[in-house]
Amino acid sequence: EGGRILSVRANPLPGGGVITLYTDITERKKIELALQEAHERAQAAALEDELTGLPNRRAFFQFGKHMLHQALRNRSTLSVVMTDLDFFKKVNDTYGHQAGDKVLVYVSKAMQARLRESDLIARIGGEEFVLLLPGTSIDEARRIAQELLALIRALAVPHAGHTITLSASFGLTSIRPTDPNLEALLQRADHALYQSKDQGRGRISVYTD
After folding, report:
1. What would the DSSP string read from start to end of 54-119?
2. Active site residue 40
3. What percent of the chain has pLDDT over 70?
């Protein structure tokens, strides 16, 4: 009562009857709860990119492995989209790292708003993002990448009286029944991404053998 937490213990007496002991454990429970909340916050922080609030690389592999296994088990499709902002170093060199951080936040929010709740988007490097799209064919993934590229190009990030415009390169691949792990998918998407960069950036490439 009065917001207190009591521990109740009933002890039988030798001659019959019961003696009931009440112990106030309110403070102990408060400490336990505070420790639990601190632990949960620490766990969440370890899986979250501090700047953008997106899942980080660690979270991507933790959740992505589950999504891959689920797709293989259900024999459903799963596509990977890897994207990298073009000439991001130039943004930092020209406008400063604060501007670069603002750009990453704008891009993150724009992409996240386009995706479904079932999709996973993570920031896995400085200006590099990766998306896992369950139940999405490579043609659908290409259409989504085209929309994301258009969104990024349409962004006008204000900073210190300037307007920063952007572009990005994309690399795509889809799951194969022989994929041993998530890394195999990422290697193919990364290969396609570098193909986009080699061909002039601001492009979308699909991995081919």
Report:
1. SB-HHHHHHHHHHHHHHHHHHT--EEEEEEEETTHHHHHHHH-HHHHHHHHHHHHHHHHHHS-TT-
2. no
3. 91
